[in-house]
Amino acid sequence: MYIAEKLKGVMCPDMDVGFEEAVWCKIKLSSEYLLVGVCYRSPYSSDSNNQSLLDMLDEAVKVPHVEHLHLLIMGDFNCPKINYTSGCF
After folding, report:
1. Domain tally, the chain
2. What are the φ and ψ backbone dihedral angles of 80, each rounded to 5 degrees?
3. Is 33 within a domain?
């Protein structure tokens, strides 16, 4: 993840919930924050690592982050068979 110096990004170690390949930061907007997560899921990821990914994404969406109102999650999830309706791999 690259953050331009003028954007005032701060790392978020509290988003480390056991998933192996993710980086999180908060970026200060005018009066709010944007929470940004970049994830990489190996195509050979174990079932437990897949569950950790889902837990991490749930945490990013559910946990009440008083400081941020915006969320951006991106990355390479290597999930060609994902069912976007049920959220299952």
Report:
1. 1
2. -65, -20
3. yes
